[in-house]
Design a protein that fits this description.
Layout: E1 2-8, E2 11-18, E3 21-25, E4 27-31, H1 43-48, E5 54-57, H2 58-63, H3 67-72, H4 76-80, E6 86-89, H5 92-97, E7 102-105, E8 108-112, E9 119-122, H6 124-134, E10 138-140, H7 152-177, E11 188-193, H8 199-210, E12 216-219, H9 228-238, E13 248-250, H10 256-264, E14 269-271, H11 274-280, E15 283-286, E16 289-292, H12 312-316, H13 319-327, H14 331-357, H15 361-372
Helix pairs in contact: 6-7, 7-8, 10-15, 11-14, 13-14, 14-15
Length: 378
């Protein structure tokens, strides 16, 4: 159950009560696609890094090790040794990203595994069954993510199919949650709003899925080729048509600036691979912008990545040492950068919640954006 605690403009401060604990929102979910955060980050590390929610991927875990295996081992929480909430992405985005390997039909999608080429079928029922086997806290509905700039006719047909798939997801999840051998009988279902950058389709779809009275609602199909301005516009016109008393999740977004802008438009949940992917390449976030630790200017820099940061990297190690590790291709360098970035994101979400609580989100956002623009990309 979602509890809206406070509003500051359109920014929402809430808490989602789940069977695996409360999620304070706005929240950034740390992406562990295959049940692990890339960069050798353990679940013990995630606890230190203020992680509230871990996100794993249905398609990837279905392919390897297999959701049946995860179920036999007690579900994803036991498998990963993580006792806080987990959200599983439905596999719908992989349908989008594996365009060369798939065929979409009314019953679902036929595609080939990117691992071994074997043929796989996934439809709404199969996605729900896999996610039930994984026993995540929140399951995402199976959808198709049309390209952001696809033509109107394609988008209309795709969104209509996604709506029909959502009804099938809801029916199947209710059935699964009632079975005796289901691990998490309180699994929540979030529906996904689609419509590319066509605002009338987005608004109509938001209204239709709101009628289904789900546990939460995501805005999908953004950050896939459109401009930031287009993305913000779609949020401006779509989010007001999603229920305020349910969590709103912007999928796959994004940069710190994207998150700040999303919160201002009423978004509660975010996820993105940026902090981990950038960290693995030596790019680290600070309140003054992003640093590339491969740069020569850090060779003799004995300061932490960011003064005053409480992350495990900044408490002990210098920029010079982390740069050396990265240059020497030592895994520890990558790990320290990833941990710093996740800590930075999770700390920023704490600041966002505090700012909304204090009724000063707009000024906080302006200060944060200005600070981070000071040396971005240098």
């Amino acid at each position: 159950m979602y509890e809206l605690l406070k509003k500051d403009g359109r920014a929402k401060r809430g808490v989602l009560h789940t069977v695996h604990g409360d999620i304070q929102t706005p929240v950034f979910m740390n992406v562990g696609t295959a049940a692990a955060i890339k960069g050798a980050v353990s679940t013990e590390d995630l606890e230190q890094l203020k992680t509230q929610v871990e996100l794993s991927n249905t398609y990837h875990l279905h392919v390897r090790p297999g959701d049946e295996i995860v179920k036999k081992l007690g579900g994803l929480h036991k498998f990963m040794v993580w006792n806080k909430p987990i959200l599983t992405d439905s596999g719908g985005f992989q349908v989008f990203s594996l365009a060369d390997l798939r065929k979409i039909k009314e019953e679902g999608v036929y595609f080939h595994s990117h691992v071994d080429g074997r043929k796989i079928f996934m439809g709404p029922e199969q996605s729900m069954q896999i996610q039930s086997n994984l026993a995540s806290t929140i399951a995402m509905a199976f959808d198709e993510c049309p390209p952001a700039l696809a033509d109107r006719n394609y988008v209309e047909n795709s969104v209509a199919r996604t709506t029909r798939w959502l009804a099938r997801c809801k029916t199947e999840m209710q059935r699964l949650n009632g079975l005796e051998d289901t691990i998490n009988k309180n699994q929540m279902l979030f529906g996904i709003n689609q419509g590319a950058v066509l605002e009338d389709i987005r608004i109509d779809h938001a209204k239709r899925i709101t009628e289904m009275d789900l546990d939460g609602y995501a805005v999908g199909g953004l950050a896939v080729g459109e401009t930031h301005e287009q993305m913000y516009h779609i949020l401006d016109v779509t989010v007001p048509h999603l229920p305020e008393n349910k969590p709103t999740y912007l999928m796959g977004v994004g940069t710190p600036a994207n998150i700040l802008e999303g919160v201002a438009r009423g978004v509660d949940f975010f996820d993105c691979v940026y902090p981990t992917r950038n960290g693995r390449h030596g790019h680290v976030y600070t309140n003054q912008g992003k640093l590339n630790l491969f740069n020569q200017r850090f060779e003799l820099d004995d300061r932490p990545i960011e003064e005053g940061c409480g992350c495990p990297a900044c408490r002990r190690y210098s920029r010079a040492y982390i740069r050396h590790l990265l240059k020497a291709k030592e895994m520890l360098g990558m790990r320290l950068c990833v941990m710093h970035n996740l800590y930075f994101y999770n700390t920023m979400m704490e600041e966002i919640r505090d700012a909304i609580d204090a009724g000063r989100y707009a000024s906080y956002m302006d200060e944060k954006l200005y600070g981070m623009s000071q040396m971005d990309g240098k």
